[in-house]
């Protein structure tokens, strides 16, 4: 027999991209999803392939230092039937001098860019041909992939849809902006893969980083850190909140992620100026969807930023409502993060499903500005000790707000507070341009025994202190129909829950507040010196 000589080959990009739902990105390059077969055609010159005489084998390699023990290099021969656990190649059909081969990766393969090489041998003679590159993505359609999502409409929305809505505004006035995620636009996949290759874990140990890219938990954590630039890690976006955006773009003016990711690449992986929470979340959502992990942007209203981990947001005000000292704890009128869908084999059973990832730089986690993935189920149950960063996100939706009134002599008095944090948690509905309220996935119904039980369990873990009740309670109510630009009435409802008459001083002061909770100038003041309350009554 003469040697088998490969003349041409066809990666069948069109057919494969259709079957793998990568049509938008798979026209010029081969892009396939893991665990699912793809076909290539090999055409030999001189003579055709003969089974039993000729041996065909493939090499696939990913990363700069591919080795078999790390799962970044595989050598596999053409066999009669697909291999379950590893890579496999099977002859599908033979037509004269051309052979169609079906290749398949395991559903646990590392994602990324691969090179594909064919080795042919007849007797002791052999040749090697470099056939080309392909990209391998997560596969939400494969039941054994850790990102498997059962519902087709949800897969369309959270993996394939390139447009979405992001909710903003405030709890009582919810607004939305359209956003172009654009995960399949030209150059976005190479940029997302470059982002993985720019992350500090890759630069520290390339082999270890590439070998962990089979795991969406690992990828999510890397993406959450790389979307912000607070670690000098060549991250994508610089955050700014002070209204001085002259040397870049205002966070309000972006309408999609594509422009941001392209600028990052074009200017040598320098951070793009500027982002705020919804921009960080949207860019992270684009990268995750591009890699094949089902993802969505969620908005939490009255979102707490608890810096000291005591599940309490402390505000220090003077008697006339001026901020006495800046607490680093804040309440934002809204805050956005990302949820990504994945199994959590690294945790006890019961925590698969949506995981919260927050790429906005707020607090460090394991020494890096990243947050998550935190199972939403663990947040709901108050299981704060699980990985990753559950106490921080639990506080974002559950923290108690405590106002301390600092008197002129410097003494501090704890005032009453109400549960205002974590309202109307919102995301775009599946297949429709309407809002889906997902608050119930993060917390039990307000005022329910279960809600209190979860908070107390969380508090025990965080061991924060409780104070005794003094028996005087105050609620502030607003007249209906208060509109911007118009006067409005405010009612103070005071109740005396004790058995003795109480004489109190009531001071009411109104101030403007910005969306991150910073207090502005006074816009109303009333000081009533002698308010008498009978036992067990209200006014």
From TrEMBL:
Keywords in alphabetical order: Acyltransferase, Calcium, Cell membrane, Chromosome, Cytoplasm, Extracellular matrix, GTP-binding, Hydrolase, Membrane, Metal-binding, Mitochondrion, Nucleotide-binding, Nucleus, Protease, Secreted, Transferase
Pfam families found in the cross-reference section: Transglut_C (PF00927), Transglut_core (PF01841), Transglut_N (PF00868)
InterPro entries: Ig-like_fold, Ig_E-set, Papain-like_cys_pep_sf, Transglutaminase, Transglutaminase-like, Transglutaminase-like_sf, Transglutaminase_animal, Transglutaminase_AS
SMART domains: TGc
Cofactors: Ca(2+)
Active-site annotation: 277, 335, 358
Annotated EC: 2.3.2.13, 3.5.1.44
Subcellular location(s) per record: Cell membrane; Chromosome; Cytoplasm, Cytosol; Mitochondrion
Domain Transglutaminase-like span(s) in chain numbering: 269-361
Lineage: superkingdom: Eukaryota
Cofactor detail note: Binds 1 Ca(2+) ion per subunit.
A GO cellular component annotation in the UniProt record: nucleus
Catalytic activity: L-glutaminyl-[protein] + L-lysyl-[protein] = [protein]-L-lysyl-N(6)-5-L-glutamyl-[protein] + NH4(+); L-glutaminyl-[protein] + (R)-noradrenaline = 5-(R)-noradrenalinyl-L-glutamyl-[protein] + NH4(+); L-glutaminyl-[protein] + serotonin = 5-serotonyl-L-glutamyl-[protein] + NH4(+); L-glutaminyl-[protein] + dopamine = 5-dopaminyl-L-glutamyl-[protein] + NH4(+)
Annotated positions binding Ca(2+): 398, 400, 446, 451
Single Gene Ontology BP annotation: proteolysis
One GO MF term attached to the UniProt entry: protein-glutamine glutaminase activity
Family assignment from sequence similarity: Belongs to the transglutaminase superfamily. Transglutaminase family.
Listed PANTHER family: PROTEIN-GLUTAMINE GAMMA-GLUTAMYLTRANSFERASE, PROTEIN-GLUTAMINE GAMMA-GLUTAMYLTRANSFERASE 2
Stated name of the protein: Protein-glutamine gamma-glutamyltransferase 2
Gene behind the chain: Tgl2
């Amino acid at each position: 027999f003469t040697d088998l000589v490969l003349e041409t080959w066809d990666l069948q990009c069109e057919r494969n991209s259709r079957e793998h739902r990568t049509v938008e990105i798979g026209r010029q390059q081969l892009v396939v999803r893991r665990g699912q077969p793809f076909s290539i055609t090999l055409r030999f010159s001189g003579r055709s392939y003969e089974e039993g005489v000729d041996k065909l084998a493939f090499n696939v390699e990913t990363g700069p230092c591919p080795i078999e023990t790390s799962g970044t290099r595989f050598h596999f021969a053409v066999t009669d039937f697909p291999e379950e656990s590893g890579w496999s190649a099977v002859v599908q059909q033979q037509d004269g001098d051309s052979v169609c081969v079906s290749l398949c990766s395991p559903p646990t393969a590392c994602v990324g860019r691969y090179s594909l090489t064919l080795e042919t041998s007849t007797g002791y003679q052999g040749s090697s041909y470099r056939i080309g590159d392909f990209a391998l993505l997560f596969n939400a359609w494969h039941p054994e992939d850790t990102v498997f999502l059962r519902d087709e409409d949800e897969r369309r929305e959270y993996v394939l849809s390139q447009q979405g809505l992001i909710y903003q505004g405030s709890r009582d006035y919810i607004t939305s902006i359209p956003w172009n995620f654009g995960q399949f636009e030209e150059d976005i996949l190479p940029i997302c893969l470059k982002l993985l290759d720019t992350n500090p874990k890759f630069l520290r140990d390339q082999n270890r980083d590439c070998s962990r890219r089979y795991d969406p938990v690992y990828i999510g954590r890397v993406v959450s850190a790389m979307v912000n630039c607070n670690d000098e890690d060549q991250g994508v976006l610089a955050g700014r909140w002070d209204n001085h955006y002259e040397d870049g773009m205002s966070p309000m003016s972006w309408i999609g992620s594509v422009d941001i990711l392209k600028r990052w690449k074009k200017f040598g992986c320098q951070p793009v100026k500027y982002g705020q929470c919804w921009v960080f979340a949207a860019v992270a959502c684009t990268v995750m969807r591009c890699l094949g992990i089902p993802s969505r942007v969620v908005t939490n209203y009255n979102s707490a930023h608890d810096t000291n981990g005591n599940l309490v947001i402390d505000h220090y005000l003077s008697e006339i409502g001026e901020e006495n000292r800046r607490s680093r704890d804040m309440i934002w009128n809204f805050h956005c993060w990302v949820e990504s869908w994945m199994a959590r084999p690294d945790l006890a059973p019961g925590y698969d499903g949506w995981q919260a990832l927050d790429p906005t730089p707020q607090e460090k986690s394991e020494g890096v500005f990243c947050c998550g993935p935190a199972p939403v189920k663990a947040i709901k149950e108050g299981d704060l000790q699980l990985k990753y960063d559950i106490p921080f996100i639990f506080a974002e939706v559950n923290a108690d707000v405590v106002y301390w009134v600092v008197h002129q002599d410097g003494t501090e008095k704890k005032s009453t507070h109400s549960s205002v944090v974590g309202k109307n948690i919102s995301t775009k509905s599946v297949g429709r341009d309407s809002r889906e309220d997902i608050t119930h996935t993060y917390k039990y119904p307000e005022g329910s025994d279960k809600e209190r039980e979860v908070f107390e369990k969380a508090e025990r873990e965080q061991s924060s202190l409780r104070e005794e009740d003094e028996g005087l309670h105050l609620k502030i109510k607003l007249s209906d129909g208060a509109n911007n630009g118009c006067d409005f009435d405010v009612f103070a409802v005071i109740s005396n829950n004790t058995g003795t008459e109480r004489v109190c001083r009531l001071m009411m002061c109104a101030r403007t507040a910005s969306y991150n909770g910073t207090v502005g100038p006074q816009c109303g003041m009333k000081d009533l010196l002698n308010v008498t309350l009978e036992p067990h009554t209200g006014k």
